Amino acid sequence: MLLATNVLETIISSKCLCRIVLIPVPKNAKTDNMKSEKIKYQGKEFNCSLAFVLHLIGDKYKTLILFHLKDGARRSGELQKSIADISNRMFTYSIRALEKDNLVKRKIYPVTPPKVEYELTEDGESLIPIILNLDKWGQEFADEHYLYAPAE
User: Fold this and answer.
1) Average pLDDT in the chain
2) Residue 25 neighbours by CB distance under 10 Å
C-alpha cells in the first residue's frame, strides 16, 4: 500500500517530527535519510527544519516583504506602502531581521535626501517559488470556499 505522501527529508527529535512532501512511497519503505541533528542558528537551537524556516520567514510581514521584492529592488518607502497595515516600527524590525538572515540586502545611496533600496539576495530569491505557491494555494482556497467578497 502506498502512503499519500513521501518523506523527502525527515527530522526526528523528541519534540518535533517534520516532513517535506514530494512523491508517494511504499508504507514499509526504509528511510535512510533520517536526521536527528539540531539546527543551530544565531544562538538558538531548532529541533525541526520547519521551525527553523518559520523563524526566518514565518511572521506576517516578512513573507509579504519578500513577495513585494520579487520583481526587483524597491525603495524603502515604496516597499512599506505596498504592505497594508504595517507600522514603521514593524517594517523596520522585519526588514532588519531579513537583512540579518541574508534574505534581503540594503543599498544606501550617498545623496540628500538619503535613498535606500532593498532587494532579494540569492537565498531570498530561492524562497520566491515557495511564496508564489502559497499565494496560489490561498487564491484557490478562497475561491473554492467562496471567501472572496463581491465587488461593489
Assistant:
1) 82
2) 15
